[in-house]
Amino acid sequence: MLRTLLELSRDRVGLIHRSLLLTAIGSPLILPAISAEAVRTDLKLAVSKTAAGLLQSWRRQGERGQILRFVQPSLIGLIDGTISTLAPIFAAAFLSGSRAALLIGLAASLGAAISMGLSEALSDDGELSGRGSSLVRGTLTGMATFVGGTFHALPFMINDTQTALKLAYVVVAIELVTIAWVRRRFLEVPLHRSLVQVTIGGCVVAAVGVLIGHSS
Hints:
The chain is mainly alpha-helical. It has helices at about 1-25, 35-60, 65-85, 85-95, 100-125, 135-150, 160-185, 190-215.
């Protein structure tokens, strides 16, 4: 996506550079008008090209390649984002209320996304393992981590903490079922076993947050 954005912006950057050069030698400064609409159009085009490229790459892979290069990096991020952020979010909710839980949840999700994305990208360049582009895997892991951590933080936009907590429990349950389904669909892990595994993990981390939240 970064490459696409750079390609789309090259002409505008060139025009600006030439305009600044003319100014330096005494010619009038004439900068091209770059509207917000033009920027939005460029971003939409970049996103659509990136999505189309990922879809084409997905179709070119065999089943093993799809799992190694796309499913596993995304699943790692989704699991980590969903489970690792439960403790800080619930601890903040019980200690300080909904607003603190929301802000801490978003911060934890973003931090985890950056960390997990870098970890995935830097741990394996794909040359020896055949897992494909480290940039693609790192991006997928980071995005999935952010999504997994953000969804159950959004209920805390509700000011009433108890209502927000009840809705957050439902969202977490949906996330855990989604993870179990993905593991069953692509990794052939039995659904009941996967549900037990991810639920135990989620409950343990959530319990840590609740205990810390009630420790004051």
